[in-house]
Specification:
Blueprint (H helix, E strand, L loop, with lengths): L2 H12 L8 H11 L5 E4 L5 E5 L7 E7 L4 E7 L5 E6 L11 E6 L2 E7 L22 E3 L5 H5 L7 E4 L4 E2 L4 E4 L2 H19 L6 E7 L7 H10 L3 E9 L8 H4 L9 E5 L4 H13 L5 E5 L6 H6 L6 E9 L7 E4 H20 L7
Parallel strand pairs: 3-12, 3-13, 13-16, 14-15
Antiparallel strand pairs: 1-2, 2-12, 4-5, 4-9, 5-8, 6-7, 6-9, 7-8, 10-11, 11-17, 14-16
Length: about 350
């Protein structure tokens, strides 16, 4: 990954976009996809849809990466200026106490901390109990409710106050790789396909919204695009760290290539094509057995209208839905290469009907 590409990934990941509040990151996606797309639009849900027009009669292909992240929403401000909140998406209550957070208010960002009673003042039984999210609070340093309300309002979103940091080698850590990394890949694939010359398919790159609260943006955008092929790009569970049961999840390592899913949510012909492309291009990959719906944008794309040939490509991620998600930049590059190389093969495929 070039430094310029890394800077874009960092910008996307660090730009706040909790579900329902994706506009800041979508402005970046529009900017990037407008560099190469024939047309870029934003629908009423907030999905950004970019099109690279292919030849007449070419299959319509939709790439979807969701741009929303998990976060918090201010629900109540007490008399002393402390903020009580609810989760946006799947938040692990264990991880929240003691964290720095940013509240994204109308007048700009406000730093806060999630307070916690010191261990010295806790009863022994309480030390082993997880404090429920609705009992946790954010301290922004205000003396009373009036002062706090000048800075924040009920309904304001918040995110963990951390950004992208390099670890060793190709590994990086941040909040919100899930799934702004997927939005980044969508932008990069469009650029790569355009760079190669004639566009072989009618290609739609979509950065979807509200995935973390029910796959909502992909549901509406897939209906609007009406693709023949829909491929979701998301994160997947890495299992290469202590405490994860591989028998339950599978064996997936960061840096060893994208995860290609196989199962009920995945069109068999499209799966075979992805594997053949990876082997031909010598791109490392890992296989996941997914016996049910995958819980990703691929789920709703497959079921749109009369049905879509769906696939799911995942980048292995450690510590999902935490402030310290870890992935490999190499896996992102592998995924971009795989999807760009797949496009000519999709143009040559006559039918995705299983037989």
């Amino acid at each position: 990954m070039t430094e310029q590409d890394f800077a874009l990934l960092k910008e996307l990941v660090e730009t706040p976009s909790p579900s329902g509040f994706e506009q800041p990151v979508q402005r970046i996606c529009r900017r990037e996809m407008s560099l190469v797309a024939d047309e870029v639009s934003t629908d009423v849900m907030g999905n950004v849809i970019a099109r690279l027009a292919g030849p007449e009669g070419a299959p319509r292909v939709m790439l979807a990466g969701h741009c929303d992240e998990i976060g918090f929403m201010v629900r109540y401000i007490d008399d002393n200026g402390f903020l009580y909140f609810a989760p946006i998406g799947g938040i692990d209550a264990h991880l929240v106490p003691g964290q720095r957070v940013t509240i994204h208010g109308a007048e700009g960002p406000v730093l806060g901390v999630v307070g916690k009673k010191p261990i010295h003042l806790m009863e022994a039984k309480d030390r082993e109990t997880v404090v429920k999210l609705n009992q946790q609070f954010i301290d922004i340093g205000c003396a009373d409710a009036e002062e706090a309300r000048r800075l924040v309002a009920v309904g304001d979103p918040a995110t963990f106050a951390v950004g992208v940091e390099r670890l060793q080698g190709e590994l990086v850590a941040s909040r919100a790789f899930d799934d702004k990394m997927g939005a980044f890949i969508v932008c990069q694939v469009l650029k790569d396909v355009k760079r190669q010359g004639a566009v072989p398919v009618d290609l739609y790159g979509v950065t979807t919204v509200q995935e973390e609260v029910g796959l909502r943006g992909a549901t509406t955008s897939a209906y609007g695009v009406d693709p023949d092929v829909g491929i979701a790009i998301d994160v997947g569970f890495a299992t290469d760290f202590p405490g994860v049961e591989k028998k339950d999840v599978g064996d997936f390592m960061v840096g060893k290539g994208p995860i290609i899913s196989r199962g009920a949510n995945i069109n068999p012909a499209l799966f075979d094509l992805l594997l053949a492309t990876a082997k031909e291009q010598r791109i490392p990959y890992q296989l996941m057995g997914a016996p049910r719906g995958t819980g990703t944008d691929a789920n709703v794309m497959q079921l749109s209208r009369a049905g879509v040939a769906a696939a799911l490509i995942q980048v292995p991620l450690r510590y999902m839905h935490s402030p310290v998600e870890v992935l490999s930049l190499a896996d992102i590059d592998y995924t971009v290469r795989l999807l760009a190389a797949l496009m000519p093969k999709l143009a040559e495929t006559k039918s995705f009907i299983p037989n």
